[in-house]
């Protein structure tokens, strides 16, 4: 696959890494970049050797949002009829294997929304998150007003969306937006370590865990718990459940076959 605005590579043959690569525009997200990203993630998702993916940017910017230069001249009719960049963003939601956002520098607007679409966020100590769309006369358009309050609660989400201020990595971790903070020079090492750990677990259980946690955002408690229970019971039909429990009982390391 030939990509212009992203770099794609694998690590240890099992982690797919996508690096956003529009450094001069601080990785501003345009139609082409989002198409390439969706294509790369879908290819990794379909590759049986890949168990987990990482999306990252540069030290200065994960992504500073959608491309404002492109948006500036659009009318309502343009964005509504053209379904402005929606089709590209929706692709990320269809990825079934885990996707980790490794964020350093700015994650603003669509950049913050992209990070929140990933399954969890590992932040470098220089990361800064924000939904500054209000300063441009718009509001977040890729789920920011929905995912941010679910992650950090109403008050902080309102604060971010209404004032457009940024939060640093410490505040982001304290509020539950990111799962951990690491030193900038350890960001990829730590993210890769997490990804490799995920890869070594049984893939059926990994996908079930992702589906079940995601369900928490889209259902009431009893529906969500019932969904979880059905997946939990179903995993007893897998070889990996036999292997995982046998390994524990016999005090050895489990070797999962993803079956
Ligand atoms: N778009 C285009 N170019 C950008 C950009 C952006 N979002 N952010 C930065 N750049 C460009 C700058 O124009 C500058 O280009 P040159 O002047 O060198 O040609 C270069 O990157 C370096 O930026 P600065 O000179 O400004 O660098 P600073 O360090 O001084 O400032 C900054 C960094 C990140 C604080 C600043 O660049 C900034 O405030 N950027 C804009 C952040 C922002 O407002 N983001 C939100 C954009 S709206 C949707 C999906 C997504 C969206 C909507 C709908 N659907 C699915 C429907 C998303 C919308 C948005 O994200």
Describe the structure concisely.
Helices cover 46% and strands 16% of the residues. It has helices at 31-46, 68-71, 76-81, 86-93, 110-117, 144-152, 154-163, 169-174, 187-200, 203-215, 221-234, 239-249; strands spanning 6-11, 15-20, 52-56, 61-63, 99-103, 106-108, 120-124, 128-130, 166-168, 180-182. Strands 1-2-3-5-7-10 form a six-stranded mixed beta sheet, with helices on both faces. It has a four-stranded mixed beta sheet with strand order 4-6-8-9.
Bound molecules: 4-(N,N-dimethylamino)cinnamoyl-COA
| Helix-strand category | alpha/beta
Q: What order do the SSEs take from the amino end to the carboxyl end, as H and E? A: EEHEEHHHEEHEEHHEHEHHHH
What coarse outline follows from CA principal-axis ratios? Answer: globular
Spatial order of the strands forming the largest sheet: 1-2-3-5-7-10
**Beta-strand fraction estimate:** 15-25%
- Mean pLDDT over all positions: 96
The helicity comes to 40-55%
N-to-C CA distance:
29 Å
Major β-sheet annotation:
6 strands, mixed
Report low-confidence residues grouped into runs of 5 or more: none
Instruction: Provide the gyration radius in Å.
Output: 19 Å
Number of helices: 12
* DSSP, total strands: 10
Notes on the protein architecture:
Helices cover 46% and strands 16% of the residues. Strands 1-2-3-5-7-10 form a six-stranded mixed beta sheet, with helices on both faces. It is α/β, with parallel strands linked by helices. The chain starts with 5 loop residues before the first strand and ends in a 10-residue tail after the last helix. β2, α1 (31-46) and β3 (52-56) form a beta-alpha-beta unit. It binds 4-(N,N-dimethylamino)cinnamoyl-COA (DAK). 4-(N,N-dimethylamino)cinnamoyl-COA binds at residues 25-26, 28, 64-69, 84-86, 89, 106, 108-110, 132-133, 136, 141-142.
